Records
---
Amino acid sequence: MEVEGGHAGVRSVGNTQRNDDNDHVTGTRPLGQPAPHQDWDDRREDEPPEQQAAPRGPRVRAPELRGRGWLNTGGEPVTLQGLRGKIVLLDFWTFCCVNCLHVLDELRPLEAKYADVLVVIGVHSPKFEHERDPEALAAAVERYGVRHPVLDDPELRTWQLYATRAWPTLSVIDPEGYVVATMAGEGHAEGLCRLLAELAAEHEAKGTLRRGDGPYVPPERSDTVLRFPGKVSSGPGRTLLVSDTARHSLVELACNGETVLRRIGSGERGRADGDVATARFNEPQGLCVLPARVAERAGYDVVVADTVNHLLRGVRLANGDVVTVCGTGRQWRSTVDFDPHDARSVDLSSPWDVVWYPAADDGSGLVIVAMAGIHQLWWFDPVKRTTGGYAGTTVEGLHDGPAPEAFLAQPSGLAVSPDGARLWIADAETSAIRYVEDDVVHTVVGAGLFDFGHRDGPAAEALLQHPLGVGALPDGSVAIADTYNGAIRRYDPQSGEVTTLATDLAEPSDVVFVGGSVVVVESAAHRLIRPVAPGAARRLAGAKHTTERPASELAPGEVTLEVVFTPPSGQKVDDTYGAPVRLEVSASPPELLVAGGGVTRELTRGLVLADGIAGGVLEVVAQVATCDAAGDNAACHLIRQDWGVPLRLAADGPRRLELVLYGESRGWAASLDQDRQDPP
């Protein structure tokens, strides 16, 4: 999940008992509730604290939606006034963000269940320059199967009206036009379901609920052989295996990259093992052909990253049969460890690419998985049928070092050097190219989460824009699918230079060297191409871009940080299995934060910001554990979010910073000059 100057994620332990008490610390105080051991003057004497609704603050009228245009509405604009009587859910997203893609999938069942009372509106608030392109946005809406209206908001007008700080953020508006809840991150589906049911019942009784169809108008369907293909691998006999991502299948092509030899999978979104006609995938991405000796023992030839199903699948090339080999199908919402686990018993999170890495496991070799959804690399042993973490802490960022301590940022492409020693990584959200060697992570290109562009030259100065693929070339150099620049780039470890091989491509997402040439997946053009001629490398001066989000102004000296959290309806903060709250604060540059850093057990903390520094980024990680308030086998949930908030220090600035994890923003309500009475 991405935020101002940083990124965030939400974890939740599904319908299981929580046993990760070592990660929890004490002292939560949800918004509107007093500190522990104080009396609750506003509750009934016979009502226990965990079962009463959190108090609501002043009612805040939802600001009207503003942007450049609309998608999925047949060209017609949508207004909140026109939706009066409906429950409206605003989903602030950007199509580069894997956490936003998780939320799209979480919302699908809610959209179906409450179709006659709920209108979901995606507010697209771009991070990268490429995402400001209306054609790129339209392609993303089709690629990810978005089935609700989308507001194109390239100038972040609606983002700012709703005081949004993070991708993704959800805002719920009741049928009378008031904001009733805001929640950042993913994993809120269960709480949302309860809230929607309560709002529907309340406004049905009041006569303010309007049932019926919403403003969604499906776009015209396009027909091509491939539809937004994701990754490519060399198959048997110089054939090409392609993940046909938007058609939820695999395609085997002849070496010309055009002739279809067979399709593996039904083409319908789903999850099912079986033969070529009945197996189902859900937006598959990476493909890895196993060495023959490993394939013989494993019982299949190809490992597939079945991304939205959160699974690895195995494919037998002889007959096209598909089997599930790793994952439960549930999304990972747990605690970090690097121990081996039974592959079919663990949860994964948006595996995006897979590769066979001969140097892993002391030279025995393993499949390495780019676990984009939690900013890690994992390993998978197809013979022992075990899996575990390999690199990354799940904190999203750019930090090198021993693999378990490194920060990664949505790793989306993998390749191995010809000698098998070096594992190359396309680290998409930091626009970086990195590698692992001897279990240590290094960066060769990339400056951070919000610096990107198209600039050739020395690797330390070169810039990319959200690369999704990387391919090893025979001479030891690396070809890069520089996706949002629409280019193929090359990094030469010998010279330390980055050059450009091809431009004007439509979102290239993978690159592989096959049969003496570079084969590129041109995803948004729905095809494979060979765009690179021998000796085509050239240098482009290019430009640097920096994602600019409105900075939060604070005064230097003593300030208060408050993370707002009100348990969702039907849940309670609970310390039965350990202390439920953890708040970690740091800063970049480190000298910005004089005092208040580190880990504490409360959601409110005093900080001291340095005087004489113009600003920086405040990095905040909040974690809260809740359990269902009723039932003998209540499900427990672990919510975690990472913020990186850009700060501008000013002597007359505020002395309080509020970040909303779940609930109502007191600061926003107080700052808006809104009608606080019931609407006429």
Note: Residues 189-206 form the longest helix (18 residues).
---
Amino acid sequence: MAHSSFLGNIEHIKSLILDFANTAHGANWITSEAYNGIISSLTKEKIIIGVVGQMKNGKSTLINALAFGDQVLPSATTPMTSTLSFISHAAVEKVMVEFYSTEDWERIKQLAADTSDVSDTAESARMLTESAVEIQEEIPNLLSTSRTIKFEDLAAYTGANGRYVPITKSIFIDHPASVLKGVSIVDTPGFNDPVISREQRSREFLERADVVIVVLYAGRPLDAMDRSLLFEQVRTAGAGKAILLLNKYDTVINEVGGEEKVLEYVKKEINKTIDTIRKEDSIMAEIFQESKIIPFSSMFALLGKMSDEQISEHEELSGYYSFFKTNFKNLKKEDYIKFSKLPELEAEIEAIINKEKVKILIMKPSTELIGKMKEKSINISKNIFTLNKVRSTLSKDSSEIDLEFNNLKKIKIEIHDQVKKSYNEMQEIVKIKCSSIVEIIRDERDDVFKNISKSLPEIGDWQKNKSYIEVCHRVIADALIDFRKFINKTIVGAAKELHYEIKRALNQLDQKITSIIKNISQDNLNEIEYLKREFIQLFEIHPSEISTSIKIEISGFLGFWGVNRNKVIEFVQSEMDTRFSIDKLRGGEMVGSISNLVMPLIEQVSEMASTIINPITDALYDAKQNMEDKEKRAKEIDTNLIELEATLSVVDSKRLEFENKIKELTNEKNVDSFN
């Protein structure tokens, strides 16, 4: 069945940018350096979609429907078959399996052997060791290794009763499905993972994820296990990224009384949860409140994407298909995708990504390309200006040209001195602001650590080691999430203040230049004012466009597993001191990002004297060199002007065409940077 995915739409936009960049580069409208930068920006960023949920909630079927449109991933039916999977695009199908390390397996055996530990984590470890008996002799040679396998052998490593499932740590899947271009899907193993390194890696990817899909079962949404998942796995991703998917709503729709009733019930349960946790857990309350809730049927979505011939190749899917045709007689095959709510899911993923990621994936290279095209237009306009100046100057005699040339050289020196002074002042403004931000972030860092130290609970009568660790993780993660928000807000605020300061300094420089040139001839005065206005156009960036996204790898702070409060505090203190030392704050990404946001503007200021004087002096020099054959030079200029004006018209029309297409394809939601 044909179905248009938003991921395909993003890829279509990226292709449009690539085609336009190729055209612009081929026509020498942009430099090779600018072209390579745009291509790099366009290809290096990926959308990361994390999928979490309990076993048998339909995660694998969801991914099969969302990414492949076919039955590619086998379903996980036990804790063992719930593997950490990374799914990405590649021209050729490939599967790489990573086995547990020797250290991982030793920990699993230790957990399994501790009969006093009745935790779910220990029970998972016992299931793994018991199931590994059949491959006992192979295990020593497989631990700490990886292997490439065929797609058809995937079930042996992640499917029910798979021979190598007990020791499979992670699976990396490359697939040529077009929807995966520019996308990575991470399927996390779920709860009570006895493998510490795998659980930590899951946290890291969920933290980096642009969207986290939480797959709930509509028949028992938000049970204790679901709430644990939301609290422990989703929180580090942050608010505004989670989607709560009420999967298999088709199985309860008749019992509950329709889709609206299912949704109403879950919203009521979520509101109860929010009321309960708001006072003690603001992070999770925020995540709940901002998460979209979608009734969903992954099986209907998958069957809707597959042809009848494809379905017939899978016994399990054929059974579902027959059941649906019998029990949902009002639905035709072409209605399955709509009924599944896949379009609503994709629309919500798109909405979340549009808030931030689209600016990096699409708008950044688009804006850069349009900016380079604008620079090209300005340069062509300057060339047109210079030629017109040469033509008008050809009527003057040599002594008049020499007088103007010498006057402009003196004025350029005065302007250059004033520009240099303003340039140094602007750099000092940035230096002072960056120093103050270092102090602000350092003070906040110290407060964050103090709050973590106070909030970590005493061990008390905890029955399970992991329970205490999870509470510590929650306290630390929440504090660091707030710290991350504080840093980003502080840096954006500082960058906006600096933007205004630079604009103010530029206005003052403009006035000083006007004062310097007030006594020159009217023609040259008008020409310098014109070139100055053209130059200042490059600074027309609205402060609302300034944004940054500083990352704090929260999962790195959660790498402790011993139950010792003092050791936890020491660990966090060490991480704080290492990651946020004064030297790293001064020279690292955080404060460095402020300079990155404003320094390009300041660097352009240093070229102001040359930019507004050289076109005039170049024209005077050109005219002086061609005094003996004025008519020939005038004809050459007329020919060049026709070519330049034609090129300018093409460049401007192509740029506007591209700009309008991007606006249209993104529904003008994320094109502030164009205005």
Note: The first strand starts at residue 47 and ends at 53.
---
Amino acid sequence: MKKFVFLKIGQGDFDRGFPVILKITLPHRASIPEVEIDCELPPHSQIPELYQNWLDASKKLSFTNLIENNKAQEYSRKYSQQYYNAAKQLKSNLKTWLSASTNLKFQRLRETLYNRLDASDEIFVFLQTSHEILKKLPWQEWDLLRDRFPKAEIALSPSEIESVDPEQPKTGQKNIKILSILGDSTGINLEKDRETIANLPKVNPEFLVEPDRQAFSYKLWEKEWDILFFAGHSNSNSDSGIIYLNPQEKLPIAELRNSLKKVADRGLQLAIFNSCDGLKLAEYLAELNIPQIIVMREPVPDKVAQLFLKYFLEAYSGGESLYLAVRQARSRLEAMEKETPGATWIPIIYQKSLDIPPTWEEIVQGTSPPALQEIASIRDRYYLADGFPQKTGIPLLTNAAEFMANLSENTTMRYGLKVAFSPQSNNPYFISVGSENLKVWAIGAWDTQQKISVPGVVDLWFTSVAISPDSRLLAACKQYKVIVWKLGEKEPLLTFSKTPFANFFDVLGYDGLEFSPEGQILAANDNQDIVLWNIKTGREIARLQGHSNKVTDIAFHPKDPRILASCSYDKTIKVWHTDTGRILMTLSGHLDEVYAIAFSPDGQILASGGKDNTIKLWSIDSGKFPKTLRSHSEAITCLAFNPDGRTLVSGGDDAKIIEWTIMGKQIHTLSQTHKRGVTSISFSPDGKTLISGGRDQTLKIWQRG
């Protein structure tokens, strides 16, 4: 399991200690902590001095290596020993500090991590602090992270961290586009880095060797890059950090703000600065919404930087997650510890985004799926009996019927087609309902396998349709009744009568009908109530009452059949416990009637849409909605999550079908949609096919391009 751990360190110092807020969450609901406690880092006044001793010894040794005289070897031995001793002292004192057996508040932090995390968890640790020394300490040496949790890696992050959605999410591609800037190479060898990148799988690298700033800026604007790489000299002598492009030109990275912001908005996934002292660079790039940055916190020997890049990219392109690839690469640097004590401490991730970093293959596949493309359109006039008016042979009657049909389709038709896809991939089909008939359609051939006729007198239209989780039962609402059939049979298995006149004033027809996830219960709205029936016994088992106006849609939690959500003309969404009939929460946020709801496949997000032309994404744990989605110009009438959990699709009275990321970023507006409002959408179990029905009496089949 993946876990997020946040260590938010407040104002303090090494003489008095630091207040800490510890939070542990699941990645997909990072705003809802599993645990949140106040604790502290204990005092240890020697830590800053020990850190500075290690850093000074490193700089002295680096300077000595440049000396070419008779005493160079003597100095090298002397400073190498100082470097080794300084690293050893820092490591030893850090270990003591981060065990702090006598400090109860810190022990509370350790015990919480120990008890609430598992050694098999992949743990993303976000260190949030403004203290410069704390940012640079080798937290990787913390015994809990190093020994107890072998899949943990620490990253620095800003105090406020949120999901980052690019303006232009990317669809799949054949190769990862890497822009590699090989800057000033004075005294270092950058050819090793170039060779490492050029030999990666599924890459399309471009190299700029000692460019000027104009050439660098031009390349940033030229393409939608996936990875930005820089090797050369850099330092943090400005608020944003400085890179050395060539021997004559150094560049404060802030002077390319517009270019870097553009490449971030276009979907840049990762920036790697394989250069010295890059922390300021990382902090500035994070402000521009580059989601992940890997930098060297301190001056780094050329060989260490080369090996880290090689080890990291081998692991990352080989299938490891970004965090585990960094941990693995750092661990492999231990062979360099003799000549560069602390080599494993220097590389660090800086993460701005709450999202889990993409894998190498996910970058290839893109941050968003390809657009759904229409592959078939089926026009079926459900409100006319089969063969009428053609069977009459009377031209006048035929023309009049055609005129009335077109008038209804284009102007007055209240209801549209409703659709549902079989949940089982081994039994693929979908069903549609309109006025007279329920039809079962074959996948691929897109022709009718079965037709069930249910003539109507007053209420001519089906208002909802559903398929059981095992794909063996079909259910539909019509004429104040809920009817259940076995697949392949025309005679009803069950018929549930609704309250008389419950639908009489339902002029919009957004009735709800759904099977529970284990298939034992069928739920439907009965005006202001929700009725639950046991499918095996055919008996009503519960009636949920609490809405003050007509219920328009219902949705079972995909993981827990006891949890049901409903929406209503009363502008609210309610979440129910079906065993007790208790309302667990009431979600109020829409400004008008709510027409459609849908749970994400993991059950953590509830999407709702309605007459106020907005979609809201609610955290089902907290009841708070982090996102309001606006793009439809009329009411949202139907919602469906892709079974892979990556996207949400909405349909509206504006005849638009729009696809969004799970975090609420619009990625596709489908072309060639219905002539009038969209009334129903449903995904195939593999998420590759979408069926839509509309008021234009047309079914459309969409597949990934």
Note: The radius of gyration is 31 Å.
